[in-house]
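>> received
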Amino acid sequence: MNGLSTGSNSETKAAAVNFLFTAINLSLKKISVKKIILTLFIACIAQLSFSQTDSTPAVYLRFPTIPQFTIYNAADSSVFTRENLKKRTPTVFIVFNPECEHCQHETKALIANIDKFKHAQVVMVSYLDYDQMVKFYREYKIADYPVITMGRDAKYFLPVFFDVKTLPAIFVYDKKGKIKKAFEGSVPIEKLIEEL
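>> returned
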């Protein structure tokens, strides 16, 4: 009887332990599933909150006239500001990187069609190293084209003002100094000429 009772007790204990482990395992699975669901939910909420687009328009759209700016001229490192622009003349700002292939192609197209810009002024702005810009200036012989002023924006003002995301970034102002058109990336020179 004693052996039978021990066997029965052992079976009961084994069944109880088995039941306990099964219950714990199920609880852990439920907790794990709950944790996974909670983690996914939090991740989705975070993604939505961080990926919402800023509904505030870029500064150049809120203030649609040519801003006060300061660049350092590639020709002689003199200061060039809004006051140096010709009055009642369409102005084209080109934010560029001397090493950017698209910027190089845009510059070649501009130079090839420079006669179409004789009643405008072009301000090419780089925020990179002054020496890189001067090398670009000399390579493309910008000094030969009086309608083009090239300068370095040491304070990174214009890229922020224009909310530049892609280079080259081109902004056309009419002869009254009001923003007319913005282009991001390469643009056919004919489209740019149409906006003058």
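>> Residues 1-7 have pLDDT under 50 and may be disordered.
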